[in-house]
Write a structure and sequence with these properties.
With 157 residues, the protein is α+β, with helices and mostly antiparallel strands. The protein is built from three helices and ten strands, in the order H-H-E-E-E-E-E-E-E-H-E-E-E. It is globular and about 70 Å long.
């Protein structure tokens, strides 16, 4: 009888543990809040590739990918590639407001044709607001001037 009771308790614990997936209860939210959450989800945890900087189209240097960055929502860190160097920092986002801290980077000797390196980092540090238009991330400075346009190249990277 004791063996059956222990077996029953063990199986009960096993099934209870397997049924729990670690997620909190999900509650219904108004459409407006859900839309904002979808917008946030669409800017964070995505690799954004630079396609335009200060009104000029960006092309990759020979043998190098286009500059890109990603904002990780789990630790509020930003990381990316300038076309020559890797960079890292932190960010703060409240609605459509975005602040990227002064960033650190590697200090590789860049080929002469890679001129976008510092300009891209300075642009990211000047961002104040953002919006997504037709799947393209547009980032703006405090005066409302468009600084850059980036396309999504991958989610949850």
């Amino acid at each position: 009888m004791i063996k059956k009771t222990i077996l029953f308790i063990g199986l009960l614990m096993l099934f209870t543990g397997c049924a729990f997936n670690g997620q909190k209860d999900v509650q219904a939210v108004p459409d407006q809040v859900a839309a904002e959450d979808a917008s946030v989800a669409s800017v964070e945890n995505i690799r954004w590739e630079l396609i335009e900087l200060n009104g000029e189209a960006v092309t990759a240097s020979a043998g190098r990918p286009l500059p890109w960055f990603r904002m990780a929502s789990d630790d509020m860190r930003v990381a990316g590639f300038t076309g020559c160097n890797r960079f890292f920092g932190t960010f703060k986002r409240e609605g459509k407001s975005l602040t990227i801290t002064p960033m650190g980077s590697t200090m590789m000797a860049c080929p002469p044709d890679v001129t976008i390196d510092q300009a891209f980092m300075k642009t990211l540090e000047a961002v104040v607001t953002w919006k997504i238009v037709d799947g393209i991330l547009e980032i703006y400075n405090g005066e409302g001037n468009l600084l850059a346009r980036l396309r999504m190249t991958g989610a949850n990277l």
